[in-house]
Amino acid sequence: MGLLQGKVAIVTGGSLGIGAGIVHRLAAEGAAVALDFHTHRDAADAIANAITGAGGRALVVQADVSLPADTQRLVSATVNAFGRLDILVNNAGIEQPTPFANVTEDQWDRQIAVDLKGPFFATQAAFRQFVAQGGGGCVINISSVHEELPMVGNSVYCAAKGGLRMLARTLANELAANNVRIVNVGPGAIATPINATTLADPAKTQALLAEIPLRRIGQPTDIANAVVWLASDQASYITGTTLFVDGGLMIYAGSL
Ligand SMILES: NC(=O)c1ccc[n+]([C@@H]2O[C@H](COP(=O)([O-])OP(=O)(O)OC[C@H]3O[C@@H](n4cnc5c(N)ncnc54)[C@H](O)[C@@H]3O)[C@@H](O)[C@H]2O)c1
Predict the structure, then answer these.
(1) What is the CATH classification number for the domain harbouring 101?
(2) Residue bearing the CA closest to ligand 1, atom 30
(3) Which structural domain, as residue segments, surrounds residue 117?
(4) Residue 1 Cα, ligand 1 centroid: separation in angstroms?
(5) What pTM, to 2 d.p., does this model score?
(6) Which of 7, 97, 126, 144 sits 20 to 30 Å CA-CA off 31?
(7) How many domains does the chain have?
């Protein structure tokens, strides 16, 4: 029996990259998965079809996480389809590296809306459902090493992910009485469309690899495996912390 048999999960931004990897792993562990997409309906449908074809349960919902009405609708659609909600994975995110002096108000507003406001109100909608049904729940934010590690030229993203760090730590306190756990997963460099430009440049890739003690770029499955375990009852004593899944990038200390 899978680690998440009988559980119901939502994954935002679940049609591509890390989110798609998480959707596949949650479903493989027995969870019914509502898979939110923003713009890539075909990719979302293909994933859902693969899951249902293998005997699993999947639901595709279009939602822009920056709109609280959309994330509320996502939670409602999930509960209508599967009867309850146990796990929310706030995965959707955008990154627009820009030197500080050139950041526009629109860039700030959009990145903060998707990367920080989105998880905030999606979590609120999920929490209300957890309380209504009773028994608790789990929220996992796909944060970044940049919730802690500064990055020049990426101030807005770092501010948003740093905000997710304090959001997790604060909500872990506030929601514990309802048996709701909040955990962040902080990926390092993972091979997905978000950093395709860097990974298409051999010199940049080599420079990146030099700072990763395990000397490889991560795969979506590396993140998904951590999410499955953190969402499972095996991690029921873990809340308010961040698990970095980064090949050691966070603790890189040079080489001999
Ligand atoms: N890839 C990495 O190296 C890396 C490293 C650290 C953190 N992360 C984080 O992991 C998460 C997933 O990133 P990824 O690498 O898979 O990126 P990606 O660009 O491949 O996928 C991002 C997903 O979010 C969705 N999305 C974007 N805006 C949305 C919106 N407004 N509403 C709903 N969905 C929206 C996209 O459609 C896409 O499905 C992000 O939060 C990102 O910050 C990624």
Answers:
(1) 3.40.50.720
(2) 64
(3) 8-247
(4) 30
(5) 0.98
(6) 144
(7) 1
